[in-house]
Amino acid sequence: MSEPKPRAVRVRTVALAVMILAVLAGLVVIVLSQQSSRTSAVVVEHVPELGSHWLKANLDDAVVIVPDRPHDRAEFTDDWTGFTSAVTRTRSFTVRTNAQRLRGGPVGPKQGTRIIALGDSVTHGWGVAEDHAYPARLQAVLADAGLQAQVLNAGVPANRIGGMVGWCEQSGEGLAPDWILWTRRPGFDDPPPHDIYVDAVRRCAWATGARVLVVLPPVSTFDLHGGAVWSQEQRSLTERLGAVGIRVLELTPVFRQAGQGQGEVAVVQDGTLRVMDQATGTSWLDVPVEGERLPQAVYDLFEDEPDVREALFFDDGHPDRPGYDLMARTVAEQLIPSLRRGEGRLRAPREGPSPSRPPPPPPPRGGP
To answer: How far apart are CA 348 and CA 346, in angstroms?
Structure first.
């Protein structure tokens, strides 16, 4: 029989075992935190009555993690809740929703002018906190101007035109809005002359009885498709919607003017894409480009150089916090004169002849 170990030896053995277990536990925590930082909460679901997806109801600060740089669809998992190992620049934000499936707290009784910002991920405030999304910032700007207005956030990531008009007809009219801010650009499934888009805006106005301002979100210089078509979209929609009394606000030139001299921009000329630092006029890289897809070298640049960033955007489609502030101020400038004149609802919902109802657009192609 072996002799018992001295007390000091036993204490050191136990201490060493505790230390080893602590290190292992720490490694597990690190691994789990790295895994969780790459997986986002699912904040949308299919809603049968809308025939489309919409925000889940009554979410309580669901954590969403997104790339903090331009990104390609191939860098996402099939369900858009995670990324490949190529994405290391990320940002996180939380999403709270109410019983009406809107981002924010309970709607409460109508006070003053009720404005509904309806759109996709830009309206939702993809990438920023609820209070920094453009609807919340717009309400603050209007309050600073002495106007009593309630701005509701009906922005849904990856929202489609069919989903937006369906929401107007099924849910929007019950909220009795005075104004609808239809905040979305035409999609790939609605090429010029944008018949689906124009008809959807008119149907939303008819269903809700609200005045409508169409807001075309800003196009990043790293969005090669949007950069090629945004001015054409503005001209077409301004002409067609202006003919029925609906104004169109294009934000792209506003953002490009405000961002001059700051951050990086993508410049395409003669088949070459240049990523240029506006502050110094120097080029980070010059690479051949074909079609409307960013070369892999651009994604690699953003990963390798954390300070490379386009002013007023955090990726190639969504404003950052200063960008959403600029967006809110610009929309407010369009609204304030009308609100001061007391312009509100045009009529009760669904009065008068209905606009034509074309077949619904094809299903979504892509993420937020």
So the answer is: 7
**How high is the pLDDT of residue 123?**
98
Predicted pLDDT at 304: 97
Contacts 24+ apart (CB under 8 A), 264-272: 264/308, 264/309, 264/310, 265/221, 265/310, 266/221, 266/222, 266/224, 266/227, 266/294, 266/298, 266/310, 267/221, 268/224, 268/227
From its phi and psi, is residue 254 left (phi > 0), alpha (psi between -120 and 50) or beta? Answer: alpha
CATH topology of domain 111-340: Rossmann fold (3.40.50)
What amino acid is encoded at 92 in this protein?
Answer: S
Instruction: Give the pLDDT score at 248.
Output: 98
Pairwise CA distance, residues 97 & 103, whole Å:
4
Give me the residues of the chain with pLDDT under 50, please: 1-5, 7-11, 13-37, 358-367
Is the CB of residue 310 less than 8 Å from the CB of residue 263? yes
Q: Is the peptide bond before 306 cis (omega within 30 degrees of 0)?
A: no
Amino acid 19: pLDDT: 45
153 membership: H or E segment, kind and range:
strand 149-155
Residue whose token pair is 């309806």: 118
Domains in the chain: boundaries: 111-340
